[in-house]
Amino acid sequence: MTAKPLGTALSLLFLALPGVLGVPTISCRNEEGAAVDWFVFYKLPKRQGKDGGETGLGYLYMDPSTRSWRRSEKLMNTNRSALGWTLQQLYEAYPSKSNNTAYVMYNDGIPKSSNYSRKYGHTKGLLLWNRVQGFWLIHSIPGFPPIPEEGYDYPSTGRWNGQNGICITFKYSQYEAIDSQLLVSNPNIYSCSIPATFHQELVHIPQLCSKSSSLKVPGRQLTTLQSAQGQNFLHFAKSDSFLDDIFVAWMAQQLKTHLLAETWRRKRQELPSNCSLAYHVYNIKAIKTARQSYFSSYQDHAKWCVSRKGTRNRWTCIGDLNRSPYQAFRSGGFICTQNRHIYQAFQKLVLYYEDCN
After folding, report:
1. Containing H/E element for 254?
2. Exposed/middle/buried for 95, CB within 10 Å: 0-12, 13-18, 19+?
3. What are the domain boundaries of the chain?
4. 3-state class (DSSP) for residue 186
5. Could you list the mean pLDDT of each consecutive 10-residue stretch along the chain, which spans 357 residues?
6. What's the CA gap between 18 and 130, in Å, rounded?
7. Rounded Cα gap, residues 263 and 88, in angstroms
8. pLDDT, tens digit, for every residue of 142-156?
């Protein structure tokens, strides 16, 4: 046997062990650029007021280390924001066209386009991964993020209303379940690269990426996911054949909790609070971001819900769909957690909500 030179052996070791010996792994990133298991953000709407948020680029931020909302000193359109640091991993890696890294960008409102597709799910997000791990960003921002060739930026159209999202770091072992959930939610993918090395385990994402027809899609599907650091999540995905309000007909009853829901409210395009089933869903009317600062749900494009105070099961869900009669015909999903810090953070945002009466 011929011995390999030491330099060659070390190079092979670096390739075989991504994430060790100084080689960075793909992960959600905090505002210092450090890897985190998850983070949540809430972009404030553009409005007048000394509390901030008047530019439409200010945001609240939390991750496992902050344990509560913190007003970020960064702006959404800088690459030193949490989103900027996180997505920079794609923008910096893209020119190399690596066969070991995959990504998917999806949005029903693709960047730099005024046309919204109703053929696909009412979903917005991004996945980036290799065979070790990656992240899933789920958000509410139309026209975001830019394609890899253009680098990080934040759309001017995303300033006016409130927006939110969650980034979760997952080991590669979780991506097969994510693959099945995306089949059901049917995202409008506008940029992607899925090298052949992933095709055996991830059957549906390459088909979605190529816009090819797939097998029969379930009406709905529920799966448990676990973050890289062991935080459990529950993901709901509905197809366009599940013709009902996902909050009332499924999520509240499945989670066995009364839910306070915050989604984009448009006059004559909203569902009222609903107490018809065992577990109720109430529309949030106003959001409180500081002691004397609040904004109406009509200024908020965010999509989330939280268990009502006093209920036994304390859940927080972030996702894709509005409480609108038209959204019953759209596919999409929500990711839910019982993390108590996330629950407390979102509970504190609720100024008041609409009762069923």
Report:
1. helix 252-255
2. exposed
3. 24-354
4. coil
5. 37 38 76 97 80 78 97 96 98 87 96 80 97 97 96 95 98 98 96 96 95 85 98 98 97 98 85 97 94 87 96 95 93 98 97 94
6. 9
7. 29
8. 999 999 999 999 999
Determine which one of 235, 258, 280, 301 is catalytic.
301
pLDDT in tens, 111-127: 987 777 778 999 999 99
Measure CA of the first residue to CA of the last residue in the chain; give whole Å: 82
Q: Which residues contact 158 (CB under 8 A, 6 or more apart)?
A: 43, 56, 76, 141, 142, 143, 144
Does an H or E element contain 344, and which? Answer: helix 340-347
Hey, what long-range contacts does 249-255 have (CB within 8 A, 24 or more apart)?
Answer: 249/277, 250/220, 251/305, 251/317, 251/334, 251/336, 252/277, 252/279, 252/280, 252/281, 253/277, 253/278, 253/279, 254/222, 255/279, 255/307, 255/313, 255/315, 255/336
Specify the pairing of strand 350-354 against strand 332-337: unpaired
User: Which pLDDT score is estimated for 17?
Assistant: 42
Tokens of 252: 């509240």
For position 51, what pLDDT does the model report?
47
Q: Which amino acid is at 19?
A: G
Tokens matching residue 225: 């996911």
Best CA proximity match to 236, nearest among 337, 336, 339: 336
Query: Helix (H) and strand (E) counts for the chain?
Result: 7, 19
- Confirm whether 341 is a catalytic residue: no
- The verdict on pTM exceeding 0.90 is yes
Could you give the dihedral angle defined by the CA atoms of residues 254, 258, 264 and 265, in that order, rounded to the nearest 10 degrees? Answer: 130
In this structure, what token pair is assigned to residue 38? 């998850």
